[in-house]
Amino acid sequence: MRWKSSNVPLAKFVAKMIDISVLILTKNEEQDLPACLDSVSWCDDLHVFDSFSQDRTVEIAVRAGAKVTQREFDSYASQRNAALDNLDFKYPWILILDADERIPESLPVLLNKHISRASLNVSGFRIRRRDFLYNSWLKHAQISPFYIRLVRKGKARYHRDINEVLEVDGVVEDIDGFFDHYPFSKGINHWLSKHNQYSTMEAKRWLEEQNGLTTFSLQKALFSKDFNEKRFHQKGIFYKLPGRPILKWLYMILYRRAFLDGRAGIIYATLQAIYEYFIVLKAKEKMHFDSLNNTNKAVKPLKYS
Fold this sequence. Notes:
- By secondary structure, this protein is α/β, with parallel strands linked by helices.
- The chain folds into two domains: 2-181, Spore Coat Polysaccharide Biosynthesis Protein SpsA, Chain A (Alpha-Beta Complex), CATH 3.90.550.10; 188-295, no CATH class.
- 42% of the residues lie in helices and 22% in strands.
- The chain contains ten helices and twelve strands.
- It has helices at residues 10-14, 33-39, 57-63, 76-86, 107-117, 188-211, 218-223, 227-238, 244-255, 263-295; strands spanning 2-4, 21-26, 46-50, 67-70, 93-98, 101-102, 122-133, 136-137, 146-152, 156-159, 165-168, 171-181.
- Strands 1, 2, 3, 4, 5, 6, 7, 8, 9 and 12 form a ten-stranded mixed sheet that branches.
- Strand 10 (156-159) and strand 11 form a beta hairpin.
- It is globular and about 60 Å long.
- The protein starts with a strand and ends in a 10-residue tail after the last helix.
């Protein structure tokens, strides 16, 4: 299902200098979407790919001049791939955003500068993302600050259902700029609810990887030049360690010096440790019940160590 607004300000086309299409993925984002749309008002090819929101998301997007397409959500990777595969993008380069992200005024010109100079073998650009807890930048606490978000049309594909990885067919270069992310814009309760769902998916994925005898390389975890490959092997090795929630908290507080971000950094490190504990508990629980189902035994109380 698709809508297109006919009320697009003429000034947007007159001042147009940036040859980049923008893709924003949404579901019930009436709170965050207006600021996100405002930060990309320079774009004259703006697409909102919506998972049948039940609030005013579509109305807000249409009023901003966006082309809105709806698709029933099935998984994070397939939803993003459907948008990249099926939308009629005007330009060869696509900037991918979530509704709780913002593009600062200085970034569009910098993006345009890089794509205008990009050789044909360059298919993506990695940009620094600044995460905020309310108004505090998590400069030290943020674990993964670099993301591939600007890609050449037809050259990028998402994999994995949770914490999806964007694989690019070609060279990926870095852009010395940043965009902002507000994961707590809807409050800590919303963050916990969302990560409760994520942890269920992460536990299932981790068990599938273990059962599939996936091997993880310490060398790649430490020295791989490919960011996604490096993170994949780091996570795989980390998941094998005992006491992961405490280790993650100590890693963030002491090694990454999250305490330098003040109270916000300590809160964020603690929330990440809680998220890690969710994954541990759910993986243990699933192994327990899978074992019972395989042996046809009666369900016994599950003990956590």
